[in-house]
Amino acid sequence: MPDASRPERRRPDEAAGVKGLRIACDSFVALPARTVSGNTIFAKNSDRPAGECQPLKQIAAADWPAGDRVRCQYIEIDQVPHTYAVLGAAPYWLWGFEHGLNERGVAVGNHTIFTKDPVDDVGLQGMDLVRLALERGGSAAEAVEVVTSLIETYGQGGSGYLDTHWPYNNSFLIADAHRAFLLEASARHWAVREVRGTGSASNHTVIGSDWNRLSADCAEHAREQGWWDGQGRFDFAAAYRDLSLVPAVISSGRFARTCQAAKQPVDLGTVKRLLRDHYDSGTVYRPAHTPDEERYYSVCMHADPVGTTTASMAAQLRGPDSVPLYWAALGNPCVGPFLPLFPSGKVPAELLQGRETAETGGAWWRFHELVTLVEEAPARRAGTVRAFWDEWESEQAERARSLRSRFGDASANGGVPQAATSFMEEMWSQAVTALDEILDRARRL
């Protein structure tokens, strides 16, 4: 494995165009006024190289001595006195997270975006910033402050890929039980827009002149570079978005699909269907189009090497009478179940395991085997696999709903409820049995 502190990976082959890039991720949030349950619902697909293991990662809350430092992926920064407990998903070799949820009910996800500012070879990755926001942000507003201050202090930088030296700019969708924010960053410049009702994010800038806050020099930097004429209210996307490397078609269709979900009252089923979305191409999407066409790229991605969904989350954030519930899918969510997890308990060990090859074990590789089987013969296997998991997932949802209703407010439960740990252990035991059954059935189809 290369030394992560000194990236010496190859750079993307510019002649390969879109095919040489890995550029996807989609997020969605619905605030209480737009959800059936009255709880904020947050969702994200992490799109990465198809065979890159992305297990769950659980980090306990901790107190740190004054003057302590923390090593992120490429750089070391000042530690804070206290960090919150976090549950999320991360490629096996990364320090940071693609998305996650902390003990205070704050959810964060990041996305590659393309802007005109160059990115430093070494700095804070977008995934570093997700983890730092979750560990340090007690609310969505606090998490925004964490990210913006760190970007201004340390800058974005460092490759997000093990085999390719390609630093990139990031956007972030950040939410808690009451508020949500979209944050888009170009090098050390940024814009923030508060979400009203529902919000989406994909792989392009969308904050225009409707921003709520800008970094101090954001507009002036754009004017100095000739990206803005200084007239009217500053438009962040118009000034900073770069279409020279990646065409709009990469993310336009996916972003439109997540925006369409906002047109109806949102429930957990809405966001799960959204994360499994392949337009109208059936249960499993096999790209029938070329990389130059919008429909080649779906919310649930099967478009390697450009991007494949390798982890997915749907989170029901804490309401006045409930604890957060994290629904995790390992691999493409269209082929597997969302597993109900309570961050206040101890997640089963197999969900946290997995390295570069299947021989290292872990749940992610077991679900990856099922994805591979279905993609080999989607016409024969996809419908059976989806129907199987829909029934299983429905049963688990009812069990999780019943337990969640008995927890009450998390602060009244004195820390980690043993009931949450016991629930997840039993749920995972049932999932293993179900996975063995459907793998055997799929092989025979």
Number of domains: 1
- Shape, please? globular
Average residue pLDDT: 91
Question: What fold name goes in the CATH topology slot?
Answer: Penicillin V Acylase, Chain A
Strand content: 15-25%
Taking Cα atoms only, what radius of gyration do you get, to the nearest Å?
A: 21 Å
The helicity comes to: 25-40%
Q: What summary fits the major beta sheet?
A: 8 strands, antiparallel
Order of helices and strands: EEEEEEEEEEHHEEEEEHHHHEEEEHHH
Number of discrete helical segments: 9
> Which strands sit side by side, in order, in the main sheet?
3-8-9-10-11-12-13-15
What is the SS-derived class?
alpha+beta
What features would you describe in this structure?
- 52% of the residues are buried.
- 29% of the residues lie in helices and 20% in strands.
- The N terminus is likely disordered.
- It is globular and about 65 Å long.
- Strand 11 and strand 12 form a beta hairpin.
- The protein has a single domain, classed as Penicillin V Acylase, Chain A (4-Layer Sandwich).
- It contains nine helices and 19 strands.
- By secondary structure, the protein is of the alpha+beta class.
